[in-house]
């Protein structure tokens, strides 16, 4: 979100900063830092994708690596997109599925 503010027109940055700061405050307990263990998993994800000749967006691989490192389930409405990482142990769940 912070990076998105940097990309916005200069006149909108202060306006956009307010809800971003509020969101970060509201969800402070749920925000995890990227640590060395996550970065190691991230490299494993990339190595695996190379071995099967597949790609995923950088942001998605980092989310997957964080979940793998911390033992989290990745909540997504696009489970099919992340299915390629199931052999690594990535667990996914669609919170919008009925």
Please write out the topology.
Elements: H1 2-7, H2 10-26, H3 36-51, H4 58-70, E1 73-75, H5 79-82, E2 91-93
Parallel strand pairs: 1-2
Helix pairs in contact: 3-4
Structure, explained:
The chain is mostly helical and 98 residues long. The chain folds into two domains: 1-31, no CATH class; 36-93, 5'-nuclease (Rossmann fold, 3-Layer(aba) Sandwich). It is built from five helices and two strands; from the N terminus they run ααααβαβ. The protein has helices at residues 2-7, 10-26, 36-51, 58-70, 79-82, and strands at 73-75, 91-93. A two-stranded parallel ribbon has the order 1-2. α5 (79-82) links the parallel β1 (73-75) and β2 (91-93). α3 (36-51) crosses α4. The longest helix is centred in the first third of the chain and has 17 residues, at 10-26. The protein is globular.
